[in-house]
Design goal:
Blueprint: E1 2-3, E2 10-11, H1 34-59, H2 63-71, H3 75-103, H4 109-126, H5 128-142, H6 147-175, H7 188-211, E3 216-219, E4 222-225, H8 229-253, H9 260-277, H10 285-294, H11 300-344
Antiparallel strand pairs: 1-2, 3-4
Length: about 350
Amino acid sequence: MAFDALTRAPVPVPAASPKPAPAKPAFAFTQRPWWPVVKRGASFVFFGLVLWLLVAQARAIDWGEVVASIRAYPRHVLAIATGLAMASYALYCSFDLLSRRYTGHKLSHRKVLIATFISYAFNLNLGSLIGGLGFRFRLYSQLGLAPGVISRIFGFTMLTNWLGYTLLAGVVCLMQPIALPEDWSLGSDALAVLGVVFLVAVAGYLALCGLSRTRSWTVRGHELRLPSLRLALLQLVLSSITWAMIAGVISTLLQHRADYPTVLAALLLAAVAGVITHVPAGLGVLEAVFITLLTPQVPKSELLAALLVFRAVHYLIPLGQATLLYLLFEMKVKKPAQAEGTGAG
């Protein structure tokens, strides 16, 4: 503290500014700057291989036969496939009902189901960031939920979806119902080990939910809380049945020309391939995987016809319904806001 020469009043001395912390090296090994580059490069390579495979297969397809196969579908087959697709959507929407119990929010079941149906349809067709996350934030925030609650709903739903996938993938890897091409094959022993890893991961999650005394952790400011064992079992059962029903849609459209375990295995492989390539709706990826794996059992024209009808009943028709519901939702939200603005004027 200094003193003025005339008044002897204390004169504040400005505090010395703290020295800036030394900058961290931009390419520190601990940050692993090479990993995003490797990951992105692997995705491009995988996408290129799938695209090449799709083009090569498309050249060998008689598209006239594909159209003829679609026109020849019996009505009862289309009805059963559509019913299974609707049932799979209903089960997926129940994931957010489970998250309602998990987060403790008080939205009605009807509002939750509408929001989930819209977000799921856009998720399938546009990707998880736009559909699964973006639409959930838009819809749930308009319904009054806080961003933190919405994030927990999204995380819980994604976990539920992939939990059932992991269980079925583990069983499929152990059963090995489908013969992979020679350049894809990892060997029966490697697939069996992978199946065991998947099943151990599922069992570990259930054990953690049932036995862990610590029920929550904070990671980078986000709370991660374990559900009860009963809720975790519901996650596993509902998700597994949902994936099984989706495979049932394709199996029905193939009119059982390929056995169900083979169709399920191809679906699970196509799903993870679509995630790796980041292609919205797995467009082309699903077809490439199924044509490669099932062509020995099903003619290409009939297989592609089944997949195109599957896209119609599982992707496009629900997307049209979800678009209409979303427009109605936005109109209903804007009406109170306009009425409030008119009253304020």
